[in-house]
Write a structure and sequence with these properties.
nine-stranded mixed sheet, globular
Length: 368
């Protein structure tokens, strides 16, 4: 009996790993044929690891964002009180996209875009596509169509609060439309988020602040349009007005504080301050000067500012004017600042947290 058992033929072992690999390869091949190349890829592939960015137009903000600018293929929200500089920051981002040879579009739902001011900020108004839609649905459809075309690099929607649902426009004053705008925004986010990522564009939403009624403890402020935009935005920037800037007795601008409230591409909660000059926008030379002094690239001794042992001005205003009049030196200093600040910056992958939930319960959508 023992001899017969020994004479039995041994069954060859099946290589489970190779079978799984073959099955996975066939599945991936079928998926690529049906849905296109890159449908499923490894997270470590260089295309997935790299975060392409566009400068925000504010050097301090680029550094605070951790990746050197606004991330491409993402939804960005800028919000803050009235006259805090929200549209100014958006127009600076548009100008930076145009400088890099990209195409920009501006959905002016507030019907308040000033072409002269946009031009003063560096926007090429002859190349900027502008739409002034009649309703919120029209605005979001236009934005989605422009992004889906793959030709537009940035679409600015100004503002979420001005995206009025068609039913509200057709109704009468005093009619109640609970949660209508929130549901409209929720649907728009579901449609936009995938298209924005696929075309590597930036959808930049400007939002306003409202106050919740009956809040005793905590911050009563909230943004309009429900919670959908908060969930889907990869970057949320809160802009606040600071102290006034004066030239003698004349007020020429104000310090603007920007806080990165949410950031999916780098560590969040960083903040920065920059000069916002009336009629000129963000003072790029002022940003360079402040950061260069902080990094000891420009030395400050008393009221004098020096660069490479040469004095560039007495007082901050004179040093800033020197950098404005000498763009080559300003660019050289800016490169040193960026190299130092962003050399150790590394993108952070999206964590599986509450911010990544693709669908929202109905009670969230009903909130206005």
């Amino acid at each position: 009996m023992a001899r017969k058992a020994a004479e039995k033929k041994t069954v060859p072992e099946v290589d489970v790993k190779s079978e799984k690999a073959r099955a996975l390869e066939q599945t991936l091949s079928a998926l690529e044929k049906e849905f296109g190349k890159g449908t499923v890829m490894k997270l470590g592939d260089k295309t997935a690891m790299q975060v392409e960015t566009v400068s925000s137009g504010c050097l301090e903000l680029d550094i605070a964002l951790g990746v050197g600018g606004l991330p491409r293929g993402r939804i960005v929200e800028i919000y803050g009180p009235e006259s805090s500089g929200k549209t100014t920051f958006a127009l600076h981002a548009v100008a930076e996209v145009q400088k890099a040879g990209g195409i920009a579009a501006f959905i002016d739902a507030e019907h308040a875009l000033d072409p002269k001011y946009a031009q003063a900020l560096g926007v090429k108004i002859d190349e900027l596509y502008v739409s002034q839609p009649n309703s919120g649905e029209d605005a979001l459809e236009i934005a989605e169509s422009l992004v889906r075309s793959g030709a537009v690099d940035i679409v600015v929607i100004d503002s979420v609060a001005a995206l009025v649902p068609r039913a509200e426009i057709d109704g009468e004053m005093g009619d109640s439309f609970v949660g209508l705008q929130a549901r409209m925004m929720s649907q728009a986010m579901r449609k936009l988020t995938g298209v924005v990522a696929k075309t590597n564009a930036i959808a930049l939403f400007i939002n306003q602040i409202r106050e919740k009624v009956g809040v005793i403890y905590g911050n009563p402020e909230t943004t309009t349009g429900g919670r959908a935009l908060k969930f889907y935005a990869s970057v949320r920037l809160e802009i606040r007005r600071g102290e006034q800037l004066k030239s003698g007795s004349e007020v020429i601008g104000n310090r603007t504080k920007v806080k990165v409230v949410k950031n999916k591409v780098a560590p969040p909660f960083r903040s920065c301050e920059c000069d916002l000059l009336y009629g000129k926008g963000i003072s790029h030379a002022g940003s360079i000067l402040d950061l260069a002094v902080e990094d000891d690239i420009i030395q400050k001794s008393g009221a004098w500012f020096s660069y490479q042992d040469a004095r560039i001005g007495q007082g901050r205003d004179n040093a800033r004017k020197f950098l404005e009049e000498n763009p080559d030196i300003a660019k050289e200093i800016e490169d040193k600042i960026r190299q130092k600040a962003l050399s150790t910056a590394a993108p952070v992958s999206d964590d599986l947290d509450a911010d990544n939930i693709p669908e929202m319960p109905e009670d969230m959508e009903d909130e206005d």
